[in-house]
Design goal:
The structure is a single chain. By secondary structure, the protein is mostly helical. Helix content is 73%, strand content 0%. Helix 1 runs parallel beside helix 6, helix 9 runs parallel beside helix 11 and helix 19 packs antiparallel against helix 20. The relative contact order is 0.12.
Length: 452
C-alpha cells in the first residue's frame, strides 16, 4: 500500500493527477473541421511563413508572434497537445505559487478544480479550441512567466533569458499585453522603493511595451477596424467614446454576475465569509453581503417561474440583460443613448455595477495579502480583471469576439478566489467547498469531453 507521509509527495501526486486529467481532456481535442483551425493548418501550403505573416500584419492582425507560433504548431496535433499540457501545468503552477496554494493541499485542489469550473463558453474558445488557445491561454501563461521576475526578483538572473520571449509573446495579445505592462509597472514601483529594481526589469518592460505597440499600431489592426465598422457593425462608428466605454463595462460587469460563472459565485461567498471573520463592522459586513444577494436575486424568477406577479416579472426582465458577445448585435445600448431611457436596462447596469463596487470594497476590508501580493494589491488585481474585459468596448468586435474575451477576467478572479480560500478560517468549510467543486468538476468534464 502506498503511504504518502511527506507533504511534498502529496503535492506531487496532485500535479500528477492534474496532468493525467488534462492529458485525457486534450486527447479529445484537436483540429476542428472548419473555421480558423483549418485556415491556419493549410496556410503554408502555397506560401512561406514570412509572406503569410507580412500579408496578415498588413491587412488583418498585428499579432505576428501569435500567428507565427500558430502556423508552426497547429498542423501537428500531437505537438499542440504536448505543449498544451506544459502550458496548462505552468499556468496553474504559477497561480498556485503566487497565491501560496502550493503550501496547502486543500488550496491546490481548490485551484485545480476551479479551473475546470470556469464558464464552458470561455473555456471552449480560449483553451480547448486550438486557434483560441494560441491567442488567450498561451499569452496568459507567457505574461505570467514574464511577470514572475518582478514578484521574485532573486530569480531574475536565471529567468531573464526565458522571460524575454515570454514578454514578447504575452504582450502580442492586446488584453494580456495591457495586463502585463500594468502589473510590471506596479511591481516595478515597489521594487524601486526597496532598491531591488534592476536593468533587466526595465528591459522586460521595454520588450512588452514594444510588442504591444507593434500590435496596436499595425496596419492590419486599422484595416480590420475599417472592415468591421464598414460591413458588420456600422452602428459602432456612431457611438461616442463614453458610449463605447459604457458598453465595455456593461459586458464586464454582467459577465461577473452571470449565474453560470461558478468561480465568481464561490469568490463572493468566500469573500463574504472572510469579511465576517475579520471584522465586526455592520457596514462592512453589509457591503460584503450585497454581491451574494445579487446572485440570489437572479434565482428568484427561476424559483417562481409560474408566478405572474409584476415584481417577479420585473426581476426577470432586469436580469434578461445578461448578454454574451455572440454576434454583431447592438444589445439596445446605442438605442437607449439616442431614445428614451429604458429604466430596466439601466436598473440592471446599476445593480451589477453596485455589486462589483461592493466586491472591490470587501476585498479592501478583508485585508487580503500574501507573500507575493502586498496589502491593497488584491484590489488592483480585481480592477484589472474588470478592465481586461471592459477594454473591449474600445473595439468594434466587442459583440462578436465570443466568450473568450472574458478569459483573462475569469483567470484573475480564479486567482483571487484561491487567495481568499487560502485565508478563510476553517478546515471543515474548505473541505465542504472542495467537495461541492468536485461534483461540479465531474459535470464540467462531461460537457468538455462530449463537445469536440
Amino acid at each position: 500500500m502506498l503511504i504518502l507521509n511527506k507533504p511534498r509527495q502529496v503535492f506531487h501526486l496532485c500535479f500528477l493527477l492534474l496532468a493525467m486529467l488534462l492529458l485525457m481532456v486534450l486527447s479529445f481535442k484537436g483540429l476542428r473541421s472548419a473555421g480558423d483551425d483549418v485556415m491556419y493548418a493549410k496556410a503554408l501550403q502555397d506560401r512561406s511563413l514570412v509572406n503569410y505573416l507580412t500579408e496578415r500584419y498588413t491587412i488583418w492582425s498585428g499579432r505576428a508572434a501569435v500567428d507565427a507560433l500558430t502556423l508552426l504548431v497547429i498542423p501537428h496535433e500531437w505537438l499542440w497537445r504536448s505543449l498544451m499540457l506544459f502550458i496548462l501545468l505552468l499556468s496553474l503552477g504559477l497561480m498556485a505559487h503566487v497565491t501560496q496554494a502550493d503550501q496547502r493541499v486543500l488550496g491546490l485542489i481548490f485551484l485545480f478544480q476551479g479551473f475546470f469550473l470556469l464558464p464552458r463558453g470561455v473555456m471552449s474558445e480560449a483553451v480547448w479550441w486550438m486557434t483560441g488557445s494560441f491567442n488567450y491561454l498561451w499569452p496568459w501563461a507567457a505574461a505570467s512567466l514574464a511577470l514572475l521576475p518582478f514578484l521574485r526578483p532573486e530569480l531574475l538572473p536565471r529567468l531573464f533569458i526565458v522571460a524575454l520571449p515570454a514578454a514578447l509573446y504575452g504582450a502580442s495579445q492586446e488584453q494580456a499585453g495591457l495586463l502585463l505592462l500594468g502589473f510590471q509597472l506596479l511591481a516595478g514601483i515597489g521594487l524601486l522603493r526597496t532598491g531591488q529594481l534592476r536593468w533587466r526589469h526595465a528591459v522586460l518592460m521595454l520588450v512588452a511595451l514594444l510588442a504591444l505597440i507593434g500590435v496596436v499600431a499595425a496596419p492590419g489592426t486599422s484595416a480590420r477596424y475599417s472592415v468591421v465598422t464598414s460591413y458588420w457593425f456600422p452602428e459602432y462608428s456612431e457611438w461616442h467614446l463614453d458610449e463605447r466605454i459604457f458598453a465595455g463595462f456593461d459586458l464586464a460587469f454582467s459577465h461577473f454576475f452571470r449565474s453560470e460563472n461558478i468561480i465568481s459565485i464561490a469568490f463572493v461567498v468566500l469573500l463574504c465569509i472572510l469579511v465576517f471573520q475579520r471584522t465586526r463592522s455592520p457596514a462592512k459586513r453589509l457591503i460584503a453581503l450585497v454581491p451574494v444577494l445579487l446572485y440570489l436575486l437572479q434565482a428568484v424568477p427561476r424559483l417562481l417561474r409560474a408566478s405572474s406577479q409584476s415584481w417577479v416579472q420585473t426581476i426577470a426582465e432586469i436580469w434578461s440583460f445578461q448578454k454574451t458577445p455572440e454576434g454583431f448585435h447592438v444589445y439596445g445600448v446605442g438605442d437607449y443613448f439616442q431614445a428614451a431611457v429604458n429604466s430596466v436596462f439601466y436598473g440592471h447596469f446599476f445593480l451589477v455595477m453596485l455589486g462589483v463596487c461592493c466586491v472591490g470594497f470587501s476585498i479592501s476590508n478583508a485585508s487580503i495579502r500574501s507573500r507575493f501580493i502586498a496589502p491593497g494589491a488584491a484590489v488592483l488585481i480585481f480592477i484589472a480583471a474588470i478592465l481586461s474585459a471592459a477594454i473591449m468596448g474600445l473595439s468594434p468586435t466587442l459583440y462578436a469576439s465570443g466568450a473568450r474575451i472574458f478569459f483573462f477576467q475569469n483567470m484573475l478572479v480564479l486567482l483571487l478566489a484561491t487567495l481568499v480560500f487560502m485565508q478563510v478560517e476553517g478546515e471543515r468549510l474548505k473541505r465542504i467547498v472542495n467537495g461541492i467543486f468536485t461534483l461540479g468538476m465531474i459535470v464540467a468534464l462531461w460537457h468538455i469531453l462530449k463537445k469536440p
